[in-house]
Amino acid sequence: MTAMTQTEKTGARTDEAATLIGDARERIDALDDRIIGLIQERMAVSAVIQEARISSGGRRVNLAREMEVLAHYRDALGKPGTSLAMTLLELCRGRV
Ligand SMILES: C=C(O[C@@H]1C=C(C(=O)O)C=C[C@H]1O)C(=O)O
To answer: Which structural domain range is residue 57 located in?
Structure first.
């Protein structure tokens, strides 16, 4: 089996476009690594808050705060921002 060419990998029809796409995909992979790191950092900070609240006798989940987080993402990113925030909340406090 022969290796795939850059053009085949990217779906581009010219070498120029294939190079541009290959370079931009490297930037996307680097951005995704940073985003994943930030999500992991968010999960750790969220866990600190949840543990403090539970230790004090409170509940893990605070719906009023979650509404603020959802609105923040919706205002910045539109409707898909709400879905993204819901996924982030699930990563941070589990399923409710
Ligand atoms: C982190 C908190 O606890 C929970 C997790 C949240 C989050 O990850 O943003 C938001 C509300 C709570 O359900 C908080 O109350 O701020």
So the answer is: 44-96
The answer to whether residue 27 sits within a structural domain is: no
In a domain, 3, yes or no: no
The pTM of the whole model exceeds 0.90: yes
Q: Residue 4 falls within a domain, yes or no? A: no
CB-side neighbour CA atoms (13 Å) of 95:
0
Q: Is 61 in the pocket of ligand 1 (CB under 6 A)?
A: yes
- ipTM score of complex: 0.99
Q: What is the total count of domains within the chain?
A: 1
DSSP tag of 21? H
pLDDT digit string, tens, across residues 45-94: 999 999 999 999 999 999 999 999 999 999 999 999 999 999 999 999 99
Is there a contact between 59 and 53 (Cβ–Cβ < 8 Å)? yes
**CB of residue 66 inside a 6 A radius of ligand 1:** yes
Q: Is 93 in the pocket of ligand 1 (CB under 6 A)?
A: yes
